[in-house]
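Page 42, continued from yesterday. The earlier attempt failed because a stray header line got pasted into the input along with the sequence. Redoing it now with the clean sequence only.
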Amino acid sequence: MAKKRILCFGDSLTWGYDPVNRVRFDESIRWPRVMGQILGDEYEVIEEGQNGRTIATEDPAEGEKNGLTYIGPCLETHTPFDVLIIMLGSNDCKRKFSYSAMDIAGEMQILIEKVKAYNEFRCQNRFKIVLVAPPHISDAIRDSWLGDSFGYENAIKLSKELSDWYRKLSQMYGTEFIDAADHVKVSDADGVHMDEDNQRKLGNFLAGFIKSNL
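This time it went through. Structure tokens are written below.
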């Protein structure tokens, strides 16, 4: 029997950025791999996380980070698959973009529409979409090396507002929805990324969600 394939599309939270040592967590810690280990041999997990990835915005200071321009080639590369997990939005809270939460949700709406069009016209609606609102940027951002880039308090505010917007998008487009902040939190080491325990917690939760719902 063919394995069920799960594509995880995200930013550094999905890539597995270690907020303490500023390197990549190994496979035993990163949430997509933890999820795959729990799901077992009937599943194959594909990691598509990129540090600094935005939903749909060019970032001249950091290079090619636009998720909207990459999602098409990414879907084509990994087709066929059964589940697409999207967790993006943290980087769109950066000060240089000057977005509101509604702006960020507007970006996500465009990305979801592109994904759904591909699913319908190229994949016969084969795969399920899981939209995940990222864990909230925490108060620790005030003293973090990332604080200046993210704009301190405004980034905290924006990240907390995203979940309501994403929930509405999920209802509009018929996707599954998860608010990661209900299950995990970011590290005080930088206020943006998850530590080992929370990477594992998210992987555990998502494995259970997929088994129960998909």
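Notes: The radius of gyration is 16 Å.
Reminder to self: strip header lines before submitting.
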